[in-house]
Every structure is written in C-alpha cells, then in structure tokens.
Amino acid sequence: MQTEKFAIENPQGYLLAGTVSRPDKDKGKPVLLLHGFTGYKEEIHLESLSDTLVNAGYMPVRFDASGFGESEGPISQFTVSNYLSDVETVYRWITSEREKTDPTMHVVGTSLGGLVALYFARSHADVDKVCVISSPTKLGRSGYIKDQQNAWKKQGYLIKSSSRFGRLHIPYTFYTDAQKYDALDILPDINSQLLVIAGDQDTTVPAEETMKIFAHAQEPKHSILIEGMRHDYKHQPDILKQVNESVVRFLLG
C-alpha cells in the first residue's frame, strides 16, 4: 500500500488537503470518503475504512472540506454548499488519477458526508455505488442539530468540541445554508446503487431518520441496521469492523 498527501486549489483559491492510498499492484477503483459535520480525514473510522478498502484493491481518497481540518479557509467557509464545491474539485483530480479502462467510482459518506455524497451522485453518472452511514435526510430534521437549532440561532454560532481541534464556533450561516439540501427531494433522481447503514443506538442522527433515505431511494438499494451502533461508532471496535466489512461487501458485490 502506498499512501500520499495531496493539496489542490478550489475555486475560492483555498488549498484542500487530502490523502490517497493506492494498492500495491495498480491504481484501483477510486472510492471517495466524505467526513461528517466537523469531521476530518484522519478520524479513526475514515482511516480504518480506508485501510480496509485499499486491502480490497480500491483507491480510497479522503480530504478536509475547506474551512476545516488541514484545508485552508476560515471556519465561515465550512458550509454544505462549499463542501459540495470542494467535492467537485477533488472529483476532477480523481478523474485524472483513475484508470482509463474503468471510468467509474464509488462514494462513501458518514453523517453529513452521506447527504453530500447523495447530492454529488445525482450529478455524476460515473458514480457506480453510494454508501451513506448514519446520515440525515436534512440537517436539523431530527436529532442533535434539531435540539441545538434555537440556541444556535440565538447565539449566532454553535460551540462544538472536536477531539483534534478543541472548541469550534460554527456560524449559524452553516445551518441556514444547509436548509437548501434535502435528500428526500433528490433521491428519485439518483441512479447509483445505494447502501444505507444506520445504528439503533444513534441519538445524534436517529436510525429512523437515516432509514428514510432507504425508503425513498430507487432500486437497487440495500440497508443494514446495526444493533448497538452509536453515531460515534469509531469508538466501538467490533462495530467499526462490521461497518467496514459491510461497505466492502457492497462495493465488491
């Protein structure tokens, strides 16, 4: 396995920091991994999934959205709209890297990254398969963000603790921008094969919210409800392994 970092400039002029891992024998089919709200590319579950994917012969690509992680830009740059734009920037880079004989790719998104993955897949016929893990249909429809919305609006920012970056002040403009994106509006337009994974102990994005994605999606589609799985399943080693293996089986199938 070969792992290397890359930096590419987005349309706003900010450098996006990313990591690509390649199988030893060839480039492998690209799999774009998208982090969640205030997530970052080195999170345990993304690194673990990346390792599992490259061992299965894939070329996983991870990056930090602009305004967050190691990517450039102020925290106000971190919005769903800008995240989607950043995905397009990384997609163009992936297009130049992937095998010409296999011009398709897969996308896996965790939490908010799953919603972003669905919007991206709708616009790209070369996305063969999409997997969303513990993802909302819309930010604030239920769970943690819904509970925080009023205080977030009143204060003008949301204080969110990050294991790596400490206390973050997320502007309310993130919330208002995110209201433009509702998976239920676009699922009929997505032709990629879909896997939806949810945890029955997830209180941040309840399983019934994530499973609405499965219910409204087109065939072919698959769903897995994992017993005991929380939103922070990265701290549940057995469940983390189960999620990774489920994703790989879906992509290989």
Question: In words, what does this structure look like?
Answer:
- The chain has 253 residues and is α/β, with parallel strands linked by helices.
- It has one domain (2-252): Rossmann fold, CATH 3.40.50.1820.
- Helix content is 36%, strand content 25%.
- The protein has 8 helices and 10 strands.
- It has helices at 44-55, 80-97, 112-122, 143-155, 172-178, 183-186, 207-216, 237-252; strands spanning 2-9, 15-22, 30-34, 59-63, 105-110, 127-133, 157-162, 166-171, 193-199, 221-226.
- An 8-stranded mixed β-sheet has the order 1-2-4-3-5-6-9-10, with helices on both faces. It has a two-stranded antiparallel ribbon with strand order 7-8.
- Strand 5 (105-110), helix 3 and strand 6 (127-133) form a beta-alpha-beta unit.
- Helix 1 crosses helix 8.
- It is globular and about 55 Å long.
- The two termini are 23 Å apart.
- The model has no long low-confidence stretch (mean pLDDT 95).
Percent helix range:
25-40%
Oligomer: single chain
Strand order of the largest sheet: 1-2-4-3-5-6-9-10
Counting H and I runs of at least 4 residues, what is the number of helices?
8
CATH topology: Rossmann fold
- Tell me the series of helices and strands, N- to C-terminal: EEEHEHEHEHEEHHEHEH
Average pLDDT, all residues? 95
Got a strand count? 10
Structure in a nutshell:
By secondary structure, the chain is of the alpha/beta class. The chain has helices at residues 44-55, 80-97, 112-122, 143-155, 172-178, 183-186, 207-216, 237-252; strands at residues 2-9, 15-22, 30-34, 59-63, 105-110, 127-133, 157-162, 166-171, 193-199, 221-226.
